[in-house]
Amino acid sequence: MNLAQALILLRIPFSFYLTPVFFFAFALCETPDPIKMAVLFVALHLFIYPASNAYNSYMDQDEGSIGGLKNPPKAGKLVLWLSFIFNLIGLSLVYFFLGKLAVFLLFIYVLASTLYSWKVVRLKRYALISFLTVMFFQGAFVYSLVFLFGQISSFDNALLQANYLLPAIISSVLIAGVYPMTQIYQHKADKKNGDHTLSMLLGIRGTFEFCGLAFGLAGGLLGYHYFSLQQSHLFYLFLLFNFPIVSFFTWWAFKVWDDPSQANFRYTMMLNKTSSIVMVLYFLSVYFIKHTHELPF
């Protein structure tokens, strides 16, 4: 394997699908610090997430499509070394710019990600444990990291903000509504590896139903959050922005009801791309609406 093939398995563009949680936290920060936010974004999306992708590819030795790659190259030792190097760079960035507590928490994320794929432990073997691990760490944990360390205000002041806890929970519920869908076309490959994913447990139709309910719950909690803060306009904006996601999801679900083979890589990536773009645009809109009075124009 050459360096170009190893770099492909980092799947850096795939990190875009994890940006909504970052921008959710960014949108709700009262005093976001541009430098801290930039460091966290780069550390997470250009180094930590790609390192996790590479490590997972090395452990899985994928022969079929994986998130972001329809025909992945075979993962050699170089991919493993790249995952270590990228983790080290991401952790170092956070250490130098955000301090020891932030890098300690990010190291916990890296450890959880490693245990998810590592053959000795391999949390991925267990449907519920792996689901809860991803739901918490890619949701509430990352939200908290960005919200608590990406602001000008101190950690303690950020922690006491009234809008911290519920959105962190909503982040995890949003991940719960997305993550099983990324497994829906991999049942055969996961079974071959001895993995038991939540999507396998639920079945194809059950995966759609579960994810639809989770996303609906996230929307309901978000509505409660905004109405409690007298910001109902942001919830109505959420409903407007999410119309393309709901429309595509519903159309695809009916398509799969008629033909289960339509639960494939192509439509999964289309849903991921659509939902990620829409959610990022929505959260950026929330940020600008909340901070319009601070803009010089």
Q: What does it look like?
A:
The chain has a single domain, classed as Orthogonal Bundle (Farnesyl Diphosphate Synthase). Helix content is 72%, strand content 0%. The protein contains 13 helices and no strands. The protein is globular and about 50 Å long. The model has no long low-confidence stretch (mean pLDDT 90).
Summarize the structure.
72% of the residues lie in helices and 0% in strands. It is an all-alpha fold and 297 residues long.
Which labels suit this protein?
297 residues; Farnesyl Diphosphate Synthase; 13 helices
Tally of discrete structural domains: 1
Helix-strand sequence: HHHHHHHHHHHHH
Instruction: Indicate the mean pLDDT.
Output: 90
Distance between the termini: 53 Å
Largest sheet properties: none
Return the CATH topology.
Farnesyl Diphosphate Synthase
Which stretches are poorly predicted, pLDDT < 50 over at least 5 residues?
Answer: none
What is the number of helical segments per DSSP (H or I, 4+ residues)? 13
CATH classification class: Mainly Alpha
Q: Which CATH architecture would you pick?
A: Orthogonal Bundle
Class computed from helices, strands and strand pairing: mainly alpha
User: Rg from C-alpha positions?
Assistant: 19 Å
Proportion of strand residues: under 5%
Topology:
Elements: H1 3-8, H2 19-28, H3 34-60, H4 77-98, H5 100-117, H6 127-149, H7 155-160, H8 165-178, H9 187-192, H10 198-228, H11 232-241, H12 243-258, H13 265-290
Helix pairs in contact: 2-6, 2-13, 3-4, 3-5, 4-5, 5-6, 6-8, 6-10, 8-10, 10-11, 10-12, 11-13, 12-13
